[in-house]
Amino acid sequence: MSNREIKPEIKDDPLFQMLRHEDVDSFNKHRDTMDCGQLTGGDYRGRDLRKMNARGLDFSNAYFRNCDLSGIDFRETNLEGASLLDAKVSGVYFPDELSPEEIRLSLDHGTRLRYNK
Predict the structure, then answer these.
(1) Where are the domains of the chain?
(2) Which H/E stretch holds residue 25?
(3) Which residues, other chains included, contact 72 with Cβ-Cβ below 8 Å and sequence gap of 6+?
(4) SS3 for 7?
(5) 20 to 30 A from 79, CA-CA: which of 26, 41, 85, 110?
(6) Contact predicate 104/89, CB 8 Å
(7) Taking all residues of the chain, what is their mean pLDDT, rounded to a whole number?
(8) Which residues on adjacent β-strands are paired with residue 63?
(9) Is the distance from CB of 75 to CB of 81 less than 8 angstroms?
């Protein structure tokens, strides 16, 4: 086990900044032509990210507190270590590796998501 504390970050990356500014349409337009490697560990708290195309992205260790994630399909997204405290998740598809109990713990208490392997 690592002693390293995982803290959410605010990054200068253009795709990250599109999400921070809730410009989901531009993010969806550019995500396939730009480097998506800086989305991990990001601080997205309080953002409206509805309609985001999350397919194939890595949001491990991301912080989604109070985000509106309604309707997002995360089935092909890495969410390991992400935190969902008080996020809106109506209509969200989660990866099969995440149990409903694990998702509920993260929504209610902010625990980091752990995948069943």
Answers:
(1) 8-117
(2) helix 24-30
(3) 49, 50, 51, 52, 54, 92, 93
(4) coil
(5) 26
(6) no
(7) 95
(8) 43, 83
(9) no
Q: Answer yes or no: are the C-beta atoms of 49 and 74 closer than 8 Å.
A: no
Q: Residue 65 — left, alpha, or beta (φ > 0 → left; ψ -120 to 50 → alpha)?
A: beta
CB atoms within 10 A of CB 16: 20
- Write the pLDDT tens digit of every residue in 59-109: 999 999 999 999 999 999 999 999 999 999 999 999 999 999 999 999 999
Greatest CA separation for the chain = 39
> Using CA atoms, how far apart are residues 82 and 100, in angstroms rounded to an integer?
15
To the question of pTM greater than 0.85 for the whole model, the response is yes
Positive or negative torsion for Cα 103, 43, 48, 56: negative
